[in-house]
Automatic annotation (TrEMBL):
Protein name: Thyrotropin subunit beta
Assigned keywords, A-Z: Disulfide bond, Glycoprotein, Hormone, Secreted, Signal
The encoding gene: Tshb
PANTHER family for this protein: GLYCOPROTEIN HORMONE BETA CHAIN, THYROTROPIN SUBUNIT BETA
Pfam families according to UniProt: Cys_knot
Superkingdom of the organism of origin: Eukaryota
Subunit structure, as described in the record: Heterodimer of a common alpha chain and a unique beta chain which confers biological specificity to thyrotropin, lutropin, follitropin and gonadotropin.
Entry's localization field: Secreted
Any one of the GO CC terms: extracellular space
Entries under CDD domains matching the protein: GHB_like (cd00069)
Biological process, per Gene Ontology: G protein-coupled receptor signaling pathway
Amino acid sequence: MSPFFVTSLLFSLTFGQTASLCAPSEYIIHVEKRECAYCLAINTTICAGFCMTRDSNGKKLLLKSALSQNVCTYKEMFYQTALIPGCPHHTIPYYSYPVAVSCKCGKCNTDYSDCVHEKVRTNYCTKPQKLCNM
């Protein structure tokens, strides 16, 4: 093995977390309520990207601290609230959603993140669409 290859491999293993591709990304959320006349398309930012993880197949051979299943998650965020148009008076027409300011690779926190990837997930409108630029 060449010295350059070994040095590159050691560097990437050591600093892989800081060089990961986890960053805020533009995303459109489609929100609708059964009672309301319109679907709202909201432009926001979410955390998305690649984080260095270690295979847990060798968990019997490795220390617990050597096993990490990191995900791209929020470092800093705030919540924005949008008004869904066309709702009757008896319906709450507001929808709050997270806006990513910065991201990090870390453990998934179920207090504010959906840590389970669902196979069937719809993100489209079934009603006439209104665009919300926040």
